[in-house]
Request: fold
Amino acid sequence: MARYTGPVCKLCRREGQKLFLKGTKCYTEKCPIERRNYAPGQHGLTQVRRRKTSEYAQQLREKQKVKRIYGVSEKYFRTMFVRAAKQAGVTGENLLIGLELRLDNVLYRMNFASSRKQARQIVRHRHVLVNGERVDIPSYQVSPGDEVRLHEGSKDLLPVQVSLESKTRPSAVRWLAVDEGTRAGRMLERPTRADIPLAVQEQLIVELYSK
Reply:
């Protein structure tokens, strides 16, 4: 799967807000977006002075924002939307919940990684067990009752220690029970929209894909 490998602060500036793609550094270091709150490039500043953003542009930016936060490709994101649309309930909420249940995101929510990108790398390197079995697929969907833990030989990984010791790490979520000592956690229940601390308007994404 193709991944964006360029400067992540550039993505934050394009979306006009901090996406916390650099882990704890986004909390501790002064972000470029705080100095230049406009899109990157030679025409970035002039875009601020343009006419009102169109409805389509607003919908597109919201989709790009969520896609970049979770670090997924366009093809995967569209697949998740189609799956969410077939489920009962609100499509936009189903989409966000499906993204939250990814194994790399669950690892990030447990504070065993300082960013989703780092969590994805930890999973890929086979450091994670789900219900006692090694899983190296970042998109693996965690279910209520599943236990997620680090392998015995991976508990003292430097990135994990740095993330757990960070004073500016994100707050814990109520749908996960975490034991930092054993580097393990359990999914207590399926999260709701209120449990997902993201300032996004998922309905705009639904409107974009429904055209």
Notes: The radius of gyration is 18 Å. The longest strand covers residues 147-150.
